[in-house]
Structures are given as structure tokens and as C-alpha cells.
Design a protein that fits this description.
With 288 residues, the chain is of the alpha/beta class. It is 37% helix and 18% strand. Strand 10 and strand 11 form a beta hairpin.
């Protein structure tokens, strides 16, 4: 068996870096210039609630009166439609390109799930096909004029992350989501280092599932420990956007397609999330 090439330095391979702008990239630039803010949600590993953060961030921004789109860039596990109650919807072609699905609060949604025959259909693709469909989601979709585009990436530092960060030269930045567990923190550090190698700003880090608030007695139990995200942000010189408590209702509401930020707005997790959104908006205001 031929020996596979390795990349021990951890740097981005030179043959994956963007050179002269292609016609597709020109189309992307034209579509994206009508979108004021473009924010990527990333995690080093799965199961940390990254998509939950992306969906509720998009919903929170729309609730504030903004025009918002969300791109579900997880080609193999597109969960955003279900979490927004739009499972089974389909994108259709129009005069201005592929039309996004319109979700709650008029959030525009683009996802691989809208192109599959059934929700159980697997996407068995190698890297080049995934990179192509992401390029088309950016260049062929009629996003229109938006205040915010939230991009939910799959966990890790693979093809989808590379594609988005290479194709969008004017990203506002990346939000990294982690949990207090050491393995999640380890992978979040890798994700942060990858983003820096791509010369993309990091807007901040969120620690999710940070302590369980008992709904009966009010006592807080640190199921997955606590404070690791804040320490990781300090070690990596990242802005700490805040922590979100563990709440089983978040999972139940997500399964029902109802974002917790509006459905259960008075809950501790929703109030904590609103503080995170406020900090993020301050960060964006400072950048511009």
C-alpha cells in the first residue's frame, strides 16, 4: 500500500490555498456583498451544542428585527432544518437562483437536507464534492440583502471549514463552542489554531452545558465541570463570550423545532444566551 502523505506541521497545505479568483468566487463575492455580517460557528468536536448555538443565534438576531440567513454547512449531518421546524421542506429554483427555505421569524435556511430524497438518505461524498456544493450554496443561492448570515460548520477542521474560510474573504469571524470537558477543550484549542492559520478573526468562545440548574430547588450541579472554557479562552487569548447552563428542555425544544431563545425566553439558559448575544453585538460594533 502506498504511503499516505502527511502534514506533521499542522499548517494548511499550500495546494488548498486560494490563488487567482475564479468565476465561482466572483459570483460568491457578488452574493456576499449584500450581506453585512457573516459569522461562522465552529467546534473542535461533536456533541457540544454547536448547531444549537447557531440556530438560536440566528433566531435571536431575527427576533431583534434583523434580516437573517443560516447556512447549514454540515453536509453529512444537516440538523438545522429539524431544529427550526422545517424538516421535509425543499429549496426551489427561481429567476435569481436557488431560493432558501423561509423559516421562523423569516430566517432564510439553506441545508443539504432540503436536497435529499428523505431525511434518512446518507450523503456519501469525498472532499471535492463537499467543497463544490458549499461553493454553490454561496454562489447560486438567492440570499438577497441580509444583516447576518450564520454559518453552522460540522465539527473539526476538515473540508467544509477550509472551504468556507477560503471562499469568504470578508468573514466577521468565528465563534468557537466547547463544553467544560477536557477532551472538548483540547479539540477547541486545535480549532482555534486552525482558524488563526487561516487568518480569520475569532469573535470569541462559548462554554456550553456549563452547570445544571435544578428547576425544583435552584441548586447548580456542575455535571461536566465548569470554567474550563473561560480558562481556555484566557490561555488562547480569546474573548470569552460567556457560558450557557445545561438544560434538558433545550434538547426537547430542538427536537420539536422550537428555538429555546424565544420559546422559553425566561429560562436561565435563554437569559444567559441573551447575554452572549449582547456581548457578540458589542464585539461586532467594535470591529466596525
Amino acid at each position: 500500500m502506498a504511503k499516505q502523505p502527511t502534514n506533521p506541521s499542522g499548517t494548511i497545505p499550500k495546494d488548498l490555498k486560494v490563488g487567482a479568483q475564479t468565476s465561482a468566487e466572483q459570483e460568491i463575492a457578488e452574493r456576499m456583498r449584500h450581506i453585512k455580517h457573516k459569522i461562522v460557528i465552529l467546534s473542535g468536536k461533536g456533541g457540544v451544542g454547536k448547531s444549537t448555538v447557531a440556530v438560536n443565534l440566528a433566531t435571536a438576531l431575527a427576533w431583534k428585527g434583523n434580516t437573517v440567513g443560516i447556512l447549514d454547512a454540515d453536509i453529512h449531518g444537516p440538523d438545522v432544518p429539524k431544529m427550526l421546524g422545517m424538516e421535509g421542506a425543499r429549496m426551489v429554483g427561481g429567476d435569481k437562483g436557488l431560493e432558501p427555505v423561509v423559516g421562523p421569524l423569516n430566517v432564510l435556511i439553506v441545508s443539504m437536507e432540503f436536497l435529499l430524497q428523505t431525511a434518512d438518505t446518507p450523503v456519501i461524498w469525498r472532499g471535492p464534492l463537499k467543497m463544490k456544493i458549499i461553493s454553490e450554496f454561496l454562489s447560486k443561492v438567492n440570499w438577497g440583502n441580509l444583516n447576518y448570515l450564520i454559518i453552522d460548520l460540522p465539527p473539526g477542521t476538515g473540508d467544509e471549514s477550509l472551504s468556507i474560510m477560503q471562499l469568504l474573504s470578508d468573514l466577521d469571524g468565528v465563534i468557537i463552542v466547547t463544553t467544560p470537558q477536557e477532551v472538548a477543550l483540547l479539540d477547541s484549542r486545535k480549532a482555534a489554531n486552525m482558524v488563526r492559520q487561516m487568518s480569520v478573526p475569532i469573535l470569541g468562545l462559548i462554554e456550553n452545558m456549563s452547570g445544571f440548574h435544578c428547576p425544583h430547588c435552584g441548586e447548580v450541579t456542575n455535571i461536566f465541570s465548569k470554567g474550563g472554557g473561560k480558562q481556555a479562552a484566557k490561555d488562547l487569548n480569546l474573548y470569552y463570550l460567556g457560558d450557557l447552563p445545561f438544560d434538558p428542555r433545550v434538547m426537547l425544544l430542538s427536537d420539536e423545532g422550537r428555538p429555546f431563545i424565544v420559546t422559553d425566553a425566561k429560562s436561565p439558559v435563554a437569559e444567559a444566551f441573551q447575554h452572549v448575544v449582547d456581548r457578540l453585538l458589542e464585539r461586532l460594533k467594535g470591529q466596525h
